[in-house]
Amino acid sequence: MIAIRPSEARGHANHGWLDSHHTFSFASYYDPDFMGFRALRVINEDRVAPHEGFDTHPHRDMEIITYPLSGAIAHHDSTGGTGLLRAGEVQRMTAGTGVLHSEMNGADENLHFLQIWIIPDRRGLTPSYEQKAFPEAERQGRWRVVASPDARDGSLTVHQDVLLHATLLGKGEQASYTLAPGRHAWLQVARGKGTFNGVEVKAGDGVAVTEESQLVLSATEPMEALLFDLA
Q1: What is the DSSP string of 173-200?
Q2: What is the four-CA torsion angle of 180, 201, 227, 96, rounded to 10 degrees?
Q3: What is the DSSP letter of 29?
Q4: How far is C-alpha 169 from the geometric centre of its chain's CA atoms?
Q5: Whole-angstrom Cα distance, residue 158 to residue 30?
Q6: Are 201 and 11 in contact (CB under 8 A)?
Q7: What is d(CA 173, CA 92) in angstroms, rounded to the nearest whole number?
Q8: Which sign, positive or negative, has the C-alpha torsion 33, 7, 143, 64?
């Protein structure tokens, strides 16, 4: 079964410096029918104005994955970590027992990124960061695993039974994926448009997948998408 979560049905908050769309309930946006999907709790699509950002704030007991689409994010945290996260790179933060961090757009251009929260497989983990680059060539026309519980194929380590894949598709390209029996999937279209198992999808759409085995994403215009393979 495939169920579309249309882009326009998402929650929306515009704070001037921040324009955010919420696939699932988040902050002041609440929809009891969309509290998450399996261990996937948050997918926010955020656009941050130049020289603005999220001041120091706390997190705990959550796996937080940041996936930039354009621009760069400067981050600082209470463990002493600091760095710059650019499009083409992915970051995993384990909030665990508690961490304070900030995320800022220090550039003169807008920042556009997805922030993803995954419920960890256990509470009380030691806070940590991990960041890696995944070149376009590794994602073009195929699913490239970028996060997994066992760091397979050089992916980030996420503390949950989830495989996160990313792809870039040119017009007319497609990427296929086989979902194992008993597994579930969530597709998030970051940009572009196409079809997913024959159903039209576009930027911002999410798709919940249950009781399917063969998944085929085809692009009718250049597309970037994420696929979560979930227990």
Answers
A1: -EEEEEPPTT-EEEEEEEEEEEEETTEE
A2: -130
A3: B
A4: 17
A5: 26
A6: no
A7: 29
A8: negative
Handedness of CA 78, 82, 84, 90 (dihedral sign): negative
Helices of type H across the chain: 136-139
Cα distances (Å, whole numbers) of residue 68 to 55, 91, 166, 198:
18, 9, 12, 28
Express each pLDDT in 111-144 by its tens digit. Answer: 999 999 999 999 999 999 999 999 999 999 999 9
Q: Which of 124, 114, 100, 92 is nearest to 23 (CA)?
A: 114
Distance of CA 153 to the CA centre of its chain: 19
In the numeric block, the tokens 């086989």 are attached to 178
> How high is the pLDDT of residue 5?
98
pTM as predicted:
0.97
CA distance 139 to 159: 23
Contacts of 137 (CB under 8 A, 6+ apart): none
What is the identity of the amino acid at 25? S
**Nearest-angstrom CA–CA distance, 193 and 177:** 18
Place of tokens 């981050």: 75
Give CA angle at 45 (172, 19), nearest 5°: 125
Alpha-carbon span 44 to 22, nearest angstrom: 5
